[in-house]
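Just wondering, does anyone understand what follows?

——
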Amino acid sequence: RGRSAVRDDRYRWPKTIPYYLDISLDVNAKGVIMQAFEMYRLKTCIDFKPWAGEREYIQVIKGSGCWSYVGNLHYGKQELSIGANCDRLLVVPFNLAHLMDSYLHITTSMLVLFVAGHFTVLALGREGNFDKYEDDVTDLQNVPYDYSSMMHYGASAFQKAEEPTIVTRIPDFMQVIGQRSDFSKYDLQKLNRLYNCTRSLAFMEQCNFEELNICGMIQGAGDTLDWQQVTSAVNGPASDFTHLTSCPGKGSFMFMNTSVGTNGSRGLLETRTLVPKRQQDQCLQFYYSGSSGQRGDKLGVHVRVGNSTELKEVMGVTGN
């Protein structure tokens, strides 16, 4: 909604954004909004605090649909809507990114090099979502075109018929555009450059298992099965989570073959000791596939605190 700030720092919010959750919001919506705030704290230096009388703040409402103005318009109170069916973690971070002026600006050169827009099949009133900009008025923060961006529209965005509204010049990326599961690598680069972030508020460790040292992780003492660094697995994932099914054999992940073990066998993968940046509860996020396992197999997450030798289980997933 509204205007789109491009090369103008006046429309940036402060790094700590005051917010007010309107009484119209459902309980579930409020919980999802809190989770979305935490996503930003974990991966950027952007924070959110309850409104305490500041002149400029965001008011999150249950309006008509899911929308946000782009950037800080200096209205004082600025609304952001999490309407019906918008209270999902796949939707809220997307709208918050609009608020912070991170937006997919479609430029003339993009339409030539990366995507084709079939604007004749757009639903009535949605033409503004595909406004085109000249390259010299957009600020892409020196990041490459990103098909996997959380901000990229999907192939069927705002369509009024069966034909796609967006077609990628490289056909393989048709299955990639429109993902809302998480920030992409370049989403984070752009946000952190927009807000001059040099470190996140709460993040401590990230590992994509691309390096041979697997981020300093080691096989735990006393295990009987080893974790293996692979790019694909027989009867298992064909690629890592980043590439999903679009690029089989690309990207690395850790794999343990439970079919070669016996009842009671276990494999331990241990990180280095991590020192929290804050006193609140800590968050752990990872992607897993257990489709190739056997019934009764269990994936567990354990924590060792301080100098203790005791491993405390904090999460477990059982099944195949």
